[in-house]
């Protein structure tokens, strides 16, 4: 029995040496590992790329790239002036409004002013062709009690009186502006309650899954729970949205609905003369199918 034990240890050592050190140290389930590491500060989808090249900071519930680890200022300037530079702005929060156009405009007029320039009713923006930007105030309080700057995009008209509006706000302003929008539209009832459970894996914390190599195939050893094991769940939401709270509200009187789409709709900024060329080469128009 002693010889068999020594033989098993020897085989295990030989087997571990077949892989490089990086492969031996790799986590068995990257999704579970990444979810565990971003319980307090959520990562953007470009996090891994930034983490290898930037000094990361934790702000507004996110983990963001702050400054490059090497001198890349000239390269960035060259990209902005001659090529194309991409920035990930997905940490900005998106608030979605749905409802009748006249009802939306009636209440939105209370939180902005024509004296400051652009409003939600500007013709070029209302058509959905251009993005607009303005300062938002507390309802009927202009020029006092400014909440902060926002940008907005109307979904182009589809022939009906119902419209869709996306308002983009900085995460530091999100809660105040969302509270004001819910107040002016009287959206208090949750439209849908989407509760997500905390991130769990098929094994308890602190217990590792052993990997057995058999005939060239890899499989996980079943734990004590067997089939009752809970699969890995991906985090839903962001640093400004509680996953245990509803994120869509509706006004029963007007039918206006407000939804928090933070981290559901990603946002990228392209800077440089070749930006349109990059988009043209990257994106392909979908064929419109009519039923």
Structure notes:
This protein has helices at 2-17, 21-25, 30-37, 47-51, 73-82, 101-108, 123-126, 174-184, 275-282; strands spanning 42-43, 54-59, 62-68, 85-88, 93-100, 132-137, 146-154, 162-169, 189-190, 211-214, 217-220, 248-250, 257-260, 268-271. With 291 residues, it is an alpha+beta fold. Among the domains are: 21-70, no CATH class; 93-189 and 246-277. It has a 7-stranded antiparallel beta sheet. A hairpin with an 8-residue loop joins β6 (132-137) and β7 (146-154). The termini are far apart.
Question: Layout of helices and strands, plus pairs?
Answer:
Elements: H1 2-17, H2 21-25, H3 30-37, E1 42-43, H4 47-51, E2 54-59, E3 62-68, H5 73-82, E4 85-88, E5 93-100, H6 101-108, H7 123-126, E6 132-137, E7 146-154, E8 162-169, H8 174-184, E9 189-190, E10 211-214, E11 217-220, E12 248-250, E13 257-260, E14 268-271, H9 275-282
Parallel strand pairs: 1-3
Antiparallel strand pairs: 2-3, 4-14, 5-8, 5-13, 6-7, 7-8, 9-12, 10-11, 12-13
Keywords:
24% strand, POP1 protein, 14 strands, 3-stranded mixed sheet, 291 residues, Pop1_N, 26% helix, alpha+beta, elongated, Pop1
Concise structural overview:
The chain is of the alpha+beta class and 291 residues long. The protein has helices at 2-17, 21-25, 30-37, 47-51, 73-82, 101-108, 123-126, 174-184, 275-282; strands spanning 42-43, 54-59, 62-68, 85-88, 93-100, 132-137, 146-154, 162-169, 189-190, 211-214, 217-220, 248-250, 257-260, 268-271. The protein is built from nine helices and 14 strands.
């Amino acid at each position: 029995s002693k010889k068999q034990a020594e033989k098993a240890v020897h085989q295990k050592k030989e087997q571990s040496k077949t892989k490089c050190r990086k492969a031996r140290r790799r986590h068995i389930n990257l999704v579970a590992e990444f979810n565990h590491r971003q319980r307090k500060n959520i990562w953007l989808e470009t996090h891994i790329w930034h983490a290898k090249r930037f000094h990361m900071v934790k702000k507004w519930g996110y983990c963001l790239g702050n400054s490059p680890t090497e001198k890349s200022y000239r390269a960035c300037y060259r990209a902005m002036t001659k090529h194309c530079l991409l920035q990930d702005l997905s940490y900005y929060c998106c608030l979605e409004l749905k409802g009748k156009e006249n009802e939306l405009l009636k209440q939105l007029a209370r939180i902005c002013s024509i004296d400051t320039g652009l409003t939600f009713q500007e013709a070029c923006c209302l058509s959905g062709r251009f993005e607009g930007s303005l300062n938002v105030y507390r309802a009927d309080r202009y020029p006092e009690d400014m909440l902060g700057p926002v940008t907005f995009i109307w979904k182009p008209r589809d022939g009906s009186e119902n419209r869709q509006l996306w308002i983009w706000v900085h995460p530091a302003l999100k809660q105040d502006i969302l509270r004001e929008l819910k107040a002016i539209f009287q959206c208090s009832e949750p439209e849908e309650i989407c509760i997500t459970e905390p991130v769990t894996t098929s094994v308890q914390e602190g217990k590792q899954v052993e990997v057995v190599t058999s005939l060239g195939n890899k499989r996980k050893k079943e734990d004590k729970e067997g089939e009752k094991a809970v699969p890995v769940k991906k985090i839903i939401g962001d640093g400004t949205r509680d996953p245990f709270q509803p994120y869509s509200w509706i006004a029963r009187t007007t039918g206006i609905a407000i939804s928090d789409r933070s981290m559901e709709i990603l946002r990228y900024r392209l800077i440089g003369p070749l930006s349109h060329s990059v988009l043209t080469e990257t994106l392909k128009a979908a064929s419109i199918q009519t039923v």
